[in-house]
Design a protein that fits this description.
Keywords: Repeat. The chain is mainly β and about 250 residues long. The protein has one helix and 21 strands. The chain has one helix at about 120-130, and strands at about 1-5, 5-10, 20-25, 30-35, 40-45, 60, 65-70, 70-75, 80, 105, 115, 140-145, 155, 160-165, 165-175, 175-185, 190, 195-200, 205-210, 220-225, 245.
Length: about 250
């Protein structure tokens, strides 16, 4: 973020809530924001310094509401100010309810449907596949970069179209077996013939064995809402204006 001739870095938590704004050159803290579980601001060292707030929404200091695309969220009540425009297709019987009453693990960046955050999905994978909470990875690898830390690409069907492969790999050893949890937070994107960025898959995890085959009992993909993935914002007021969703969760 550029402000007053300086470049500032916005530091967010696992939900996308802005917690710190730091001078990129000096490390000086320009703003610190604390929230309770439902997004009420309990401390703000510099109100109005930047526009983003709880879960990455656009915060209005006058109304104290946070805009997430289709709706405004009221952290004081923990509810939306309007009913879900897709009604019960959003997955909640309460049309004003926020993220199934679990704001610590779920986010809803477009105001339409709650989705698990990255951390919550990672925890769910561990539970489903029998990895105890106290077990940490044997190894964590950052994958798919060349010697100059440039992204490596897989060539897609169309000549010149490339899908960036950006991933971390968490390697666990449980019950004598190797399990690899591969993280693709940005998903896979490429450019079409008009130069538009096309999202082929949203942020997700894959779980494989040591030979790269799907781990027994694992799903093909574990999709989650990622603050790094532009698909999560294509319908809201922070739209980049060039993201076209392609495909989707299985």
């Amino acid at each position: 973020m550029l402000r007053e001739g300086k470049t500032w870095r916005l530091i967010a938590d696992h939900l996308g809530s802005i917690r710190l704004v730091i001078d990129a050159e000096t490390g000086q803290i320009g703003q610190r924001i604390d929230y309770d579980a439902w997004g009420r601001i309990t401390h703000d060292s510099q109100p109005g310094f930047q526009p983003f707030g709880f879960a990455g929404g656009l915060y209005d200091p006058d109304t104290q509401l946070t805009r997430f695309g289709a709706r405004d969220y009221d952290a004081e009540t923990g509810r939306w100010t309007a009913k879900d425009p897709i009604l019960f297709d959003g997955g909640d019987s309460n049309l004003y309810g926020y993220v199934l009453q679990d704001p610590v693990n779920w986010i809803d960046p477009d105001g339409l449907e709650a989705e698990l955050s990255r951390n919550a999905m990672f925890a769910q994978i561990k539970r489903e596949l029998g990895i105890p909470n106290n077990v940490i990875p044997e190894t964590v690898k950052v994958q798919f970069y060349d010697g100059n830390k440039n992204n490596l690409y897989r060539i897609f069907k169309d000549p010149g179209a490339k899908i960036p492969l950006m991933s971390r790999e968490y390697i666990y050893k449980c019950n004598g077996k190797i399990m690899k949890i591969q993280e693709h937070s940005i998903g896979h994107m490429f450019k079409d013939s008009n130069g538009r960025m096309i999202l082929q898959e949203s942020g997700h995890f894959n779980v494989t064995d040591e030979d790269g085959r799907r781990y027994p009992g694992a799903k093909a993909h574990y999709y989650f809402k990622s603050k790094l993935n532009p698909m999560n914002y294509y319908r809201n007021s922070r739209s980049l204006g060039m993201i076209v969703p392609r495909g989707g969760p299985e």
